[in-house]
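ASSEMBLY PREDICTION REQUEST
Request ID: AP-0331
Submitted by: J.K., bench scientist
Number of chains: three
Total residues: 938
Priority: normal
Notes: Please return the full assembly, not individual chains.
Input sequences:
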Amino acid sequence: MSTFLQTLFVGLRLGSIYALVALGYTMVYGIIRLINFAHGDFIMVGGYTMIFTVPVMIALGLPLWVSVFLAILVCALVGMATELVAYRPVRKKGTSMTALITAIAVSLLLENLAQAIPQIGPNPKVANKIFAAGGIRIANVTLDWTTILTICISVIVMVILYQFTQKTKIGRAMRCVSEDKPASILMGINVNRTIVTTFAIGSSLAAIAALMYIAQYPKVYTTMGSILGLKAFVAAVLGGIGIIPGAMLGGFVIGLVESFTTSYVSSSMADAFVFLILIIVLIIKPAGILGKNMGEKV
Amino acid sequence: MIKNKTLQGYILNTLVIAVLLIGFSFIKEAFGKAGDFKLILAPSIWQCCYLIVLAASLNLTLGFLGQLSLGHCGFMAVGAYSAALLSLAAERAGIFKEKSGIAFILVLVGCILIAGLLAAIVGLLVGIPALRLKGDYLAIITLGFGMIIVNIINNLPFAGQEGLALGSASASLYKNGLGFGTALKVTYIWVAIAVTVICIAMMFMYVRSKYGRAIRAIRDDEIAASASGINTAFYKVFTFAYSAFFAGVAGALYACANATLSTASFAFANGGILNSTFVVVMVVLGGMGSLTGSIVAAIVMFLVNYQIKNGLWVKLLPLWLQNIFAFPMLVYAVILIIVIMFRPKGIFGTYELSLRNFFSDMKTQRQNRLAQKQENKEALSHE
Amino acid sequence: MSDERTPILETRKLGITFGGLVAVSDFNIQVFKGELVGLIGPNGAGKTTVFNMLTGVYKPTEGSVLLDGQVLNGKKTHQFVAAGVARTFQNIRLFKQMTVLENVLAAFTKDVKYGMLDSLFRTPRFWKTEKELKVKALDLLSIFHLEDKADYIASNLPYGQQRKLEIARALATDMKLLLLDEPAAGMNPTETAELLDCINAIRNRFGIAILLIEHDMSLVMNICERIQVIDYGITIAKGLPDEIANNPKVIAAYLGQ
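STATUS: Completed
Returned structure:
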């Protein structure tokens, strides 16, 4: 029983991290129909930022998690820069294939740049513990604060995000552009600004996810974003790419699948399982659980 | 005089290749024993050969069919490991003792062929589920398959993570199986070249036929291709398998040129050059839709990679630049971004170098340029 | 097998529903060999949807499509083409990066008799077939006066010629039924007149059945033997051009009521 509970909590915790990252993927895909391969690497950027800012917080006597705000700022800037410098010019002149190749190139660039800069890579760095140790005991299992905070913060962020897209002007603009870009332009929406904002928000989510991740696994390395990003991407596709509730749903499902596979089957199979889910989803219902099939207009 | 232009083309191409090969064997005879040729040129030629085949084969899928397949190195891995293990098995079964003689050559050719066929079967298995997907989704699923394939090889007891370098399968690979030492690389260099030429020829034959037209039609507009009677599912899967065949052959060549194989080399984006991204860079750089471009780009990227790793001039650069060169993938990522942003068609676009048409192509180009200049002048004079 | 009384195209209660929306319902039509029938209706009436069902792009949710007596529902597009249906598109869908000649050659693919081995070893059969294909393609292009542009990249052609190329490509599939989706869209009167000549030339030469969607009434009245009118997916009138022109329901549909 305690294994089950433990696995469950780990799954939920992992799931909330995946959900946050999946949200970033899904928001960007929804608005420009591009899988931002570099999204996982934004997490890495956030992680390394915090490696540098946590000591600053310690020096200033602030709680360690405040460092996330700087990470959010840096990630948002990197995200916006990527869109402005790399994606927008290619989107204007190129095809969706070249846009995809650009995304892959940016991802590679970020990963290898991090490795090349001596202050950062290539060896992993270790962060300080961000949240206090210890936790609540439920049925012989310790539910540590990190897990509780991760899940809570993620859920709060998701709720805020959902409200944002439903109630605010920019949020609605994002939904409009996702659905019908030409019509949005005709309605007077500044599409370019909306896209940049989407990137900023998505990347900020990546920074928060980085915080959660480091809180649990304090080792930061240059490729930490890629596997995490890939699994979060599977989560986004599973839930329905472009659909915000879908990303949250997908994130938790993948987190639970990974956790239970690791516990009850084997840890090396966990990654393969996640990928298997991707393949099955793409073959059976590419639009995802909450998705609608949109055929091409002939 | 031979009238038929196509026949002219074939004869011309064959003559040129023959001349190049004869010239090359003279050089080999003259310098073959010398250190430089043995140590540098021969291994380089082997590497160029499998890079050329890799790039050209991915171009079939990416450039001609228009599908971004990111798992190409998975097929190469299948080919490499198949060839290495088969040859090892043959050696252990006593089919050949030394790496020479008719028996060995037969084993060699057999291994290359079977490596290709096995890779083609895997390509088939990947191509079928990929049928329903387009664009981004296809890229992701092929990426996934590439990883799964390498993962599976990793978990096979006789192949394994340590690669064919340690462990029971491999201990004798260096001296037996296929892995050629430097001397043998020179001896069998004609194998590498012949295989490359044959592969490229096979790809040209494919592209300049109903198959090439069908897949280019699918690339340009799949719905219209269907509406023109093209069985898109068949041609997509067939091209996947065909392109995977050559990736497998390239893998076999790689197995010949390397004593040890490790699955880490075939990942999606590691620091080496065997990853799927490097192949994409080659194809994009050369021009998606130009086999000539892939050949040229493979050689260019080989040279770039070689210089980055071994160039003496690198030591002269400022330290931060040297740090960057320690991570070649960074350079390739930059190359890819520059090409995509400023010349997405790559060096050659969809142009194929044709020896027969070389002079008339030059003439047409010059005419077009003059005509364009003329038009521009007239346009300006009307303002 | 067909006799003179079997229509080349017949649909029986053909219909399709998308989600809750009934796009087309109870569509019945017969087109006989050599006939040219027009399908008209206001924008959004469902005409292209009908075409899509007649070519396997959409699967009908009710009813059936018969080509020369053979039921074709549920088959894939290229199977429809193999059975003898060819079409052009409302928004031109040419193979943009291929030449004019290659666009037509591509449409011959399903009938090309050589295989992979012939292609690899360049057998005499390969050469003979390729030569025949080229001759046939140039011949088709000549109907539309495009043969001297054979090596042009398709996207470099002017608009009117692109439309003609699309028709030429459709003809290459050796069809029994040709579906033309607004072939005169975006054309000026001169081009439309040329198009008319081309369509007549096709009729005389191939004797196929043609179903035409068109908004340009001069073309429709001039060239169609019979006309069927649909609005909101429902057939509101069928008959000869004169009858249709004076039918109050048709007039109302177009003027909006």
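REVIEWER COMMENTS: The first helix of chain C runs from residue 47 to 54.
SIGN-OFF: pending second reviewer
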